[in-house]
């Protein structure tokens, strides 16, 4: 069963990149609300006047043939993505409540059939408040500046003058929207994560949702082509993540088990490092020095790296579980509160 996924977040948090990769993996349709604003800025902002009547006519046309117009919007956006004038006009259009309402309505009608990843500043609150999975991609400001400067090949002065001011302005404009979104969505900080790591976090939420819905096997499984591309660690992680969910459906028991497993791997790493540091000969004149170095490289390094990797991964799992447990208790408190009010 397909669902809708809404992704929100501040400027330069990776929404577009992650959204594209996620929709490809799930074979979902991607819709970026920001693309609509840039399209409207190009097509319906003439002589410094927003052609609101033309926008209403376009809305009717689009709903008659939505996927044709989505391709057209994407095509226009690709052509004028770097156009500063279009971007400025799009920002002005985005401040008009009537136009925001039109764009939100278009996306809501198109996504009724499910199977969409929707990106936008208010995707989790105004556009798709009923999305089954709602995420905020957050990022520290330093990471945003670095990302934007690398993308546009800018000098230090240009970074200070252009990138920083642009990010600050966009963050300021979206401040209240992001605050509202954080109340209803799961937050993923992307600052120090690779694209693959962010996607892995999102897929855990997708798998968990499907498990809760079906109480059995997840509906979203890798294809044969994807499975045979997995190396040893990806397939191990995929299988163990599913095992955790199936064996420990109780969140607190799962948290306790993973905490113990983390401690176990930390002890293993301590022992590996002790052998490397204190047991193996360090004097090159020692007869066993060369054999010990070969053994360290060919034998010891494998399990030592494995323990380090597991520690990092288990720490991520615990952080995600903390969010899930907090959300679970918050929802229970809300239900109890509603029940008390109804009983009164």
From TrEMBL:
Any transmembrane segments, and where? none
- For this chain's UniProt record, which GO biological process terms are given? nucleobase-containing compound metabolic process
Q: What residue stretches are annotated with the Cytidylate kinase domain?
A: 5-205
Q: Which reaction does it catalyse?
A: dCMP + ATP = dCDP + ADP; CMP + ATP = CDP + ADP
**Broad EC category:** transferase
- What's the name of the protein? (d)CMP kinase
Q: Which domain of life is it from?
A: Eukaryota
